[in-house]
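Example 3.
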Amino acid sequence: MQRARLVLAFDANAVAAARVSSGLGAPRIEACLQEPLPTGALRPSPWEPNFADAGPVREALGRLRQALGDQKRGAVVVLPTGVARTALLEPSAAGPREFARFRLTQGLPYPASEALVDIVAVGKGRFLGAAVRRSIVAEYEEAVASAGFTQERLDLAPLAALDALLRRSPAAAGVDVILGDVGFSLAAHRDGEVWAFRSRLRDEDEEEPARIQAEAERTAAAAGVPSPRIRVVGPGARGLLNALSFRGMTVSPGWEGQGEHLPVEACELAWLGAAQ
Amino acid sequence: MTSRRDFSTRPVRGASFRERAFLGLAAAAVAVSAALAFQAKRDLGEAQAAVEAARRDPALRRAPALRDAAGTLAAQALATSEAPPARILADLAALMPGDVRLNAATLVYGETVLLELNVAAREDAAYDRFLENLTASPRFGDILPGAESRGGTVTAPLRLRYRPGGAP
């Protein structure tokens, strides 16, 4: 029995949508489209409004909806890297969501009541929590609704990608690099648990692979992972994989093609994690 | 395990697998109760028809033994109509603490309704509480607990009578 769902993903350079079927086997991409955005129209940020110019974003969403022709199906909306504050948590007695809210809302530059908090399990008793500002989520939700999509739930690209990567090889030791257009996240894991999680802004120049390599090695050292094996997903993943491989690192794409309909390599789409 | 993440400003919470399972079980229980009630009603109709036929039979009037049998049948029919299995089980369930469950139940319809139960309780105290509830209830009487196996979970047979006329 096959069940299809829509995944709708935002990032600074493009909005993308995919129809993914999930049944007894691995999820399969039935259709996937990407609409580029003009520079500066969407600026992922955890504090400031993200839609600098909402018009082109809404137009791109409208084109995606028309092209997919699947108007009634609920969509999983995926927000880009750079919109949330994250923290690795080890809750003791309290429920993990309550604990995440307690920890993450301390020191936010906006009222705690404005924070939307959720978690992803990253090992035995460990969770990665994230807090997003309500007004920022509302911007994306309004754009999605105005284009005629029905929102089923809303996820964050780094959390969705990390969740999917951990499910793929839960016990392998290494560092996962999850790229976004404006930032990237690093998660070091061993023995089926994430021991370190960091987020950094991107600065795409020829030195970027060296900087990411250094960050990956520091993250691995902090987690007690020797000679990290690096998996990469997200925009620019293929270029980074080539550069890191050239520099002698052991690297692999986080995931590879799951269908015949991808506009780019599967590893370039971190948000595909939300479809799994 | 946690449910799927959702950072929506107005999350639409779908039923979890556990909630759907409970809903399914509840629906199945309702269906079983309805089937039992239907069966009881049909048995009552057949019993009443048999009683009427027996009353009209002149040979039966002359035979005291057969007359007694007809009387028993009539009482049985009455008990079935006043105490259908679904009602008895519902009355029983109302007296059961949360950590007591029925492993088996046999209902014998005669002049009264005899219940033979096999009960399992998670703790001694829960089983004792169930017995207290039964004793206090006007709808159950002649309670005869069987040999109990205690030590962690308690399992015990239990025999008792149902009094349909008892106040709730």
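Helices of chain B lie at 17-56, 58-62, 64-82, 85-95, 124-136. Residues 60 and 67 of chain B are 6 Å apart (CA to CA).
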